[in-house]
Amino acid sequence: MTNLQAAENLNSNLFQISALETFRRNLENNGLDLTRANCTTLQINVGLLCNQSCKHCHLDAGPSKKEIMSEKTVDDVLDLAGRFTFETIDITGGAPEMNPHIQTLISKLAPLTKTLILRSNLTAIAEREQVLLLQLLAAKKVTIVASLPSLNETQSESQRGKNSFATSIMTLKKLNSLGYGLPDTGLELNLVSNPTGAFLPSSQEQTEKRFRKMLAQKWRLFFNNLYTFANVPLGRFLTWLENTGNLESYILKLAANFNSCTLDGLMCRSLISVSWDGYLFDCDFNQAINLYMDGKKKHISDLKSLPGPHDSIAVAEHCYTCTAGSGFT
Known about the structure:
It is built from 12 helices and 8 strands. It has helices spanning 3-8, 21-29, 71-83, 102-109, 131-139, 153-160, 164-178, 204-219, 235-244, 247-256, 284-287, 319-322; strands spanning 41-45, 86-92, 113-120, 143-147, 189-193, 225-228, 271-274, 280-281. Strands 6-5-4-3-2-1-7-8 form an 8-stranded mixed beta sheet. Strand 1 (41-45), helix 3 (71-83) and strand 2 (86-92) form a beta-alpha-beta unit.
């Protein structure tokens, strides 16, 4: 079965349990395998509360969400990070800046890992009360991975909301003033650009060159690296695809662009993902459909050992997103 045929077999229950074998079966039919390597990264989703309601959000995060990591679960996460060695610890959301325990989490995680990452939408951190958080991030040399989908204000705000673009530019200026994205500071600022519609991203190399040139010329802004990712057909983006009649064509496009060379570098091979309530997943995307690691609902407090090489990875049709084109690593 070809990739396109596999996608054409998807039915109206595309993301339901009955259809979850299609991606796996496609791998098997092509003599491919997707299993774990060594676990080197801990990813922590601290909650679905966000100041934005982006059209592409795979978790349906937004201002009305009540799902947020408690102090008890934060303690469980810190215990996990202390019991095992992780080269990278990656904090995400929602908008992680809106979790009331975020400064505690950053302060205590920073000494436990070589690289601590905070994923930011660049607007939640713009509030005046976040000045101390910005100072803490710089002091702990936390890497910031910031979402900036487009340099076109209209396109960007069609995805992320009114005034989000101007606020993002203002935040980038603040980050640059702290040394983020500048040479020889040790403060890494990476941007993420994703399409504003139902299509695949442009070339990462060309997009980075364009962003670097335009941000420097128009706003004297600087960053370290830029990554381009396709939108994952889950959550609010899935709803948008359905409502606009783009779901089938988008899935076909992802499957038709399947690239087996992406498999070795997929993040799920070296990562464990912890949800806001402390349960384990192979990636943040699987959280959106409660597709638990190893198919079992397990809390981090019950984890006795990290998953090892050749352990299975839970997959579904959204995995075509991470394996399309240059992939999602």
